[in-house]
Design a protein that fits this description.
There is one protein chain. With about 375 residues, the protein is mainly beta. The protein folds into two domains: about 10-160, Sandwich (Jelly Rolls); about 160-330 and about 350-379, Protein of unknown function DUF2961 (Jelly Rolls). It has six helices and 24 strands. It is globular and about 75 Å long.
Amino acid sequence: MFDDISRIREGKSARASSWDRSGRNSDYVMIAPGETKVLADIQAAGSITRIWMAQRGGYRECLLRISWDGSKHPSVLCPLGDFFCLGNGFINSFQSAYFSASTKANHAYGGACALNCHFPMPFRERALVELVNEGPKEQKQWYHIDYETYEQGPSADRGFFHAEFRRENPFGGWGPEIAVNSPEADAVNTERDAWDHNYLILNATGRGHYVGCNLSVTNFNGGWWGEGDDMIWVDGYDWPPELHGTGSEDYFGHAFGMQPNAFLRNGSSLHESLTGGYQTSYVFHLENPVRFLKEIRVTIECGHANHLANEVSSTAYWYAEKPDAAAKVPSLARRMPVLRDNAGHWLHDRKSIHTSWIVKPTAAMAALKKKWAEKSHNG
């Protein structure tokens, strides 16, 4: 992680920032609704070493977009908050190896917050960093983009940084009425059923390595939202996958549920007990990146065997040999958080529904649903 800090090399350090060019103290830029603002356009060989951003909102409305070496498609495309491991428009102070945030309004929806990213992002010809305001309000944005430029570009074995956002609202689970860890939830989920129906975090092709993700859950069902195994396929389908986990909290380095702890490599940047049902968990594969030569498919069950129907979103991080296109982001309406009223009721909006597929229950699952209904009726 810190191997490069002692290495002396030729290079020039620089920063693109929102400092006030007039010499006064208005050290921010204003981004109108519908406007795309170029934060940095670095035309050289180099590497972005740090991104700092500060704002008072726009965490789902604004998109961070980064393109490498003149590519026509961005390799980083995420809502602002989700890129920095804060989901559903919430803010909170936390620290990890690659991201941190600092705010006076912990566990709040919206508000002022400082965001930091320390992922190294090498490039050979050009780096274009933009912020896209798709919201209805003007965005007041402070930022630093620290970088280095070199006479000779990064070595051929240095990959291009990628990040992409996905969302299901709600996830199309087959039995959301069934409590997690009940016998009726203990259905079989193997082989192609798992490949096709698990929540998809990343599906990338080419050569590279996956370095982690964050996963946000809006817990409509209450109780425990996890128990889903992570399943990661490397270079094509096989059963079992190359990496098969044992439960949601296990993948994020916790056990017996997620605790309100944020560690360097894993933890909760937002904990549902402090936000009224909104959870963001993260994991970084610092020492154990998942390497692939042709393709990778990173998935996780939503509840065991995908029976739950909570809102789920994620940001995946990986390095690739070439600048590839990040997944398209859902429209503003289809990515905005599901909020609650003062009585605690979820305010579902038809415009925000974004369900890519619905898990059709097998005969065995249908029998389990029937058994749960009978138990609930008699209980």
